[in-house]
Amino acid sequence: MKRSLKWFSVATTIGMIFVLLGGALVTKTDSGMGCGSSWPLCNGELVPADITPELVIELAHRVVSGVVGLMVLILSIWTWRVIGHIRETKFLSSLSFAFLVIQGLIGAAAVVWGQSDFVLALHFGISLISFAAVFLLTLLIFEIDKKFEAEKLIIDKRMSLHIIGVTSYSYIVIYTGALVRHLNASLVCPDWPLCSNGVFSLPDNLYEWVQMGHRAAAGLILIWVAYITWLVIKHYKRDRVLYWGWIICLVLVVLQVAAGALVIFTRLNLYIALSHAFFITCLFGVFSYFLLLVYRSKRNQMFSKEAIQITQPNSELEL
Q1: Residues 13 and 138 in one domain
Q2: One domain for residues 9 and 102
Q3: Do residues 72 and 133 lie in contact, with contact meaning Cβ atoms separated by under 8 Å?
Q4: Distance CA 194, CA 189 (A)
Q5: What tens digit of pLDDT does each residue of 95-123 get?
Q6: What is the CA radius of gyration of the chain?
Q7: pTM value?
Q8: For 255-282, what is each residue's pLDDT tens digit?
């Protein structure tokens, strides 16, 4: 049964990636209204009569989201029953399904009633939280046989603050990137990294502000991750999870920035744009795992202090 749960959790995690990329595909191809203003049916029909590429993309995204949503629900109940004794399981199970429902409702509301671009930009970030919860559930499941465990890892205060800070900040980067897409501001600045002809100047309008704000935010997270990776290589070589985890983060954030630049140079090549979304999805998943480790580390340190307080009086009595 545990082996089946492992395979199912991996399949659900991959399914969540397809949901995220499908949502990005809908946005990048302007297929959000491919099924008209009706939901969940297309143009109010069970079998649409007028088939267009936009309709196929939007309908496929709805079907995949529905199937994966059912998989997330099954995974949540299954993990609750099998590994519910693990402290984080119930919280992650509830979080994964709740945020998937929220992102589905936002998508439905956008189709039926319409939403501002600033609200729609939240859609990708909400889906990412659901993906991260499913991803962490999968890691918890693989910890059952102790083949994937960092339960006893102790993370000091400085590294903990970096992890919490960069993970929180990454959500700002994600939101600004989504806002660029929803405002159709991807090519408002034809050059990179500066807006036009390599000359520095302040943005002239909202679209340029959003585009250049996202580039600045992405540049800062690249510097931040590079600095943390340098700290880890210098001070945490013995902690293999931190060591290799941050090297992976650095690789992902470099790929993310490079893909963002190539999106401009290739004039919105669809495959590069989707890879841009894929890299940030993986990066946020690793950040989320680090957050879990920070929580566990603080819990372990708290238990250690309580154990010392309990044993010290006994030692004094023996003396």
Answers
A1: yes
A2: yes
A3: no
A4: 8
A5: 988 888 887 787 777 666 666 777 777 88
A6: 22
A7: 0.86
A8: 999 999 999 999 889 999 999 999 999 9
pLDDT category, 308, cuts 50, 70, 90? low
Domain housing 221: 153-319
SS3 assignment for 122-152: HHHHHHHHHHHHHHHHHHHHHCCCCCCCCCC
Q: Structurally, how many domains does the chain consist of? A: 2
Same domain, 110 and 164: no
| Residue 58 annotated in active site | yes
> 3-state DSSP call for residue 298?
helix
Q: Tell me the two tokens of residue 31.
A: 């297929």
Whether 12 and 157 map to the same domain: the answer is: no
Higher pLDDT, 30 or 132: 132
Amino acid at site 271 = Y
Annotated catalytic residue: which of 45, 54, 58, 316?
58
Residue 318 has a pLDDT of 47
Reported residue count of the chain is 319
DSSP symbol at 192 = S
Nearest in space to 9 (alpha carbons), one of 147, 137, 148? 137
User: Do 199 and 289 reside in the same domain of the chain?
Assistant: yes
Same domain, 74 and 194: no
